[in-house]
Amino acid sequence: MEKIKNQFFKNNNPNIMKQFLFLFTLLFFQLSFSQTQPLIISENIRLPKDTIVVNQLIKSLNGFLAEKEKTNKENTFILKEDLPETSAWLDEIKGIEKNQKFKDDYFYRGYLTNVVPVNKNDYLVQFSYIGVNENKPILKASFEVLAKKKDNQFYFASTLKRNTESWKSKTFGDITFHFKNTLNEKVAKDYAKQVSFYDKKLNTPSSKIEWYGCVDLQEVLKTVGVPYKLDYNGENADTFSGNENNILVKVVGQNNTTFNSFDPHDLWHERLRNILSKSITNKPVDEGCAYLYGGSWGISWKEIFKEFKLQIANNKNTNWVEIKEIPVYFNTKEFKNAADYIVNALIVQKIEKEKGFPAVMEFLSCGKYQKGNENYYKILEKLTGITKSNYNEKVWELINGVK
């Protein structure tokens, strides 16, 4: 390359210099683009008749896929208004070419399979990722996405809104529920109220939730634009979500299409994740908050604490330091609960009463579990004066102090 460069720049000929720069840029572009594995287009695909439109569509689609490993909001082929629902779909395409079994980052290749006009400017695009091992094709996934023409390029959006156009919707507070037939409005209102309670406590910025009720995971996949994905073989329940532009989109496949139930316990974890990274969250403290503020699956905090006292705290020889290191469980109906989580609920209750919720946030963010819980005891001593040496005694005081 250096010899070629010297030859081109000899005598400082401006035209030759321009030629070199053009060729070098073209070569760099080709080498870079080759790493993105552009879609393979079969000869039997019926593409739009307008070759200009075809070129714009293919170029935009390959550009969109080339940027899929970026954060979703950095993808320049997604319009801002389409980002929340498209984010949930786009997460399913990240790393799609990789096959860990064969240790091949480009085992699965993308194939364009269909382009269907939706209106004058927009198309429904379908593509699949297929790998071959010992002459046997392996289908990794199939996707479909809306391609929207704007100016001289196409932008891409999930099919979620298109596939739910005939659904009904109702809004309570900042939450809109999308459903096919009926909605349990009482439970929906309770959910909106609980979200508001948590967000106020956490002092989080106001945001919206778009909830979509599907029967099962297979309906979720089809609704968002993933007709098939190998990873979900045999699975029947899951939730897809995307959180962008202060809008959380939840496509729920849990056999709860009418929103007959929700768990305030799990909702606490969900709302906390919006402001506190899982990497620094202490799980026992997090679980303690969830039990204290949300109970667990229809069982109130008072009921859970009552069973805790009957089954665990009935033995005065119980050592809470040991239980923190070696978990002990008790049952409420068919659910199993860790005794240490209940102890943390009592400690959270004490901290919030004495120092307010900002101190609880400090406790929550003391870091993940460590053997010996040094990080936990360090912040606990700072906030309450409770140390590892007097932990057992102080916990018993908290338990016995509950009326």
Short account of what is shown:
This protein has helices spanning 2-9, 14-34, 51-66, 83-90, 160-163, 185-202, 217-224, 264-273, 283-294, 301-311, 320-325, 339-355, 357-364, 374-384, 391-400; strands at residues 40-41, 109-117, 122-133, 136-150, 153-157, 168-172, 175-179, 208-214, 228-229, 238-244, 247-253, 329-332, 335-338.
Rg result = 28 Å
* N-C termini distance: 82 Å
Unreliable sequence segments: 1-11, 16-34
**Topology as a string of helices (H) and strands (E):** HHEHHEEEEHEEHEHEEEHHHHEEHHHH
Helix content: 40-55%
Strand percentage lies at 15-25%
Could you describe the largest sheet, including whether it forms a barrel?
A: 6 strands, mixed
Number of DSSP E strands: 13
Structural class comes to alpha+beta
Note the overall shape: elongated
Helices, by number, come to: 15
Mean pLDDT, as a whole number?
A: 91
The tally of structural domains comes to: 4
